[in-house]
Structure prediction request, 260 residues.
Amino acid sequence: MSGQRYIHGGTDAVEVARLEKQARWVSPILLQRFEAKPGMRVLDLATGVGAMAGQLLERWPLIELYGADLSASQLRIAQREHPAVRYVRANGAALPFPDGSFDRVHWTWFIEHVSKEVAVKALAEVRRVLKAGGYAHFTEVDNSTFRTVPALPHVKAAIDALNAGQVRGGGDPYVGQKIVQYAREAGFTRIDSRPNVLKGDQRDPLFLQGFIDEFAEIFESVDEALGAPLTEAAAELRGLIREPRGELHYTSVTTQVFKT
Ligand SMILES: C[S@@+](CC[C@H](N)C(=O)[O-])C[C@H]1O[C@@H](n2cnc3c(N)ncnc32)[C@H](O)[C@@H]1O
Prediction:
């Protein structure tokens, strides 16, 4: 894992279940613009435990799906959980595939973990392994958009700790804002980047509850690694469901880059 310390995304059973649940919750939002035809070769880059790879196969069961990740331990879990995917241990910045290997490349929450240098190299590698006419479709974070109404002090402190931990590990919790620039530097000229603006409130309590759970579970999962009392933040965030005027806001960024 490039010598970096990951603040979430481990391989214990609770964390694997959290990642699967997260993938089920986010995929209807994040995969809206993705399409693939039967027989297409698709790469799920930084596949981790294969949670989003599973979602891709559920929607497009006839694609030829590859999963690549730097971490052997993540790939062992992925192989167990989603055995229909072909896994390859690989660094995104030096992909072990010939030019023009894939019709589609997909990823979620990858570039947030690496330096700008690795990010641009990885995007250039993605461009190299895409077939002409193919595209990559990927989603990254912008944690500056996280906001609750009313403001919740423990939650705010938890997000700050999470962001600081990610920066310490060499990543970038605001990378969603920079991804178009990185894609240009990697040689892409046709780029379509759109925010996924999410707002949860009491008009849709079920959505609000799911949205709260996603972040509360992230706070609980990073607790040990950060050594911070994030369970307090998780409890405070869970209390938002009882606020008649409570709101939760978060915007990730989904980008498509085309090999012309
Ligand atoms: C937050 S996880 C996301 C996993 C998966 N995409 C998902 O949504 O469940 C980030 C993944 O990026 C992988 N990763 C980090 N740096 C990498 C690199 N340079 N090349 C390939 N994978 C990398 C990590 O091993 C980890 O599995």
Summary: The chain is about 40% helix and 25% strand. Residues 13-258 form a domain with the Rossmann fold fold (CATH 3.40.50.150).
